Amino acid sequence: YPLDVTLEGMNHGSAAEKKLSRIFGCRVMRACARYADCVLVLENAERLYKRIFPETEQKNFKKCGIPLLEAINQTARLPQTDVHTGEVHFVYGGNLLYSMRNPTAFLDLLETSNWPAHMTLYFDLYGKADAALRASWQGRYEKLHIVEHGWVSEMELNQALMDADVLVNIGNREPQLIPSKLFKYMSTGKPIAHMYITRKDPCIPYLHRYGNSFLSNPNETEESMIVEWVLNRKTGAPDITSMFPACVPQYTATIIRNT
Q: Which of 36, 41, 127, 162 could disulfide-link to 94, CB 3.0 to 4.6 Å?
């Protein structure tokens, strides 16, 4: 099961360290694959695998999805709360960093959009923002209230997701990395606002299939579009395992069993 992160190399460190980690990471993965009866290839990173492994070494490839849906489906069984009257809560679960996974452009969009006078906007962060990001937010927002809840238990996070009006997802710059929280979000049936950095963002095909989502880009999204989408948002509980069958753990287990 070669990790796409190992094939890509380090995100941090000097240019030399990044290059060396990519070279040796690929060598290790290819050496392992030559001894393998099966190489599990994530569907969102298939192009990366095929670029790294020569065609002669691809005969044992078996494609699968990110196998995260079984435990996540527990979220969908939680009771759903009513939509907040006069309040809109945008909820994000996880770490946010100034240098990567930075939501500021999306928060700016919320701040500058023309919302109805009776609405109060909240960005609820269940996790941590680094010091540089918090400093950049100082005095920046008047209409938008940022609430940093810190780290909470999984049960508390699940309930926060079900209480949310909109769930927020931030895409990566790498064209094959998908935040694992996306599958947790989709299992709730809640509206998802996704900020993408690149049009090659691998989250986009999943969110198109999910349907109940708003895709925004810092340079392209009009302010009126998100207001209209939020005011007309819907919540449903899709059969997420039928929608993404390759992302159920049993799918990968079956590949292993049949190899």
A: 127
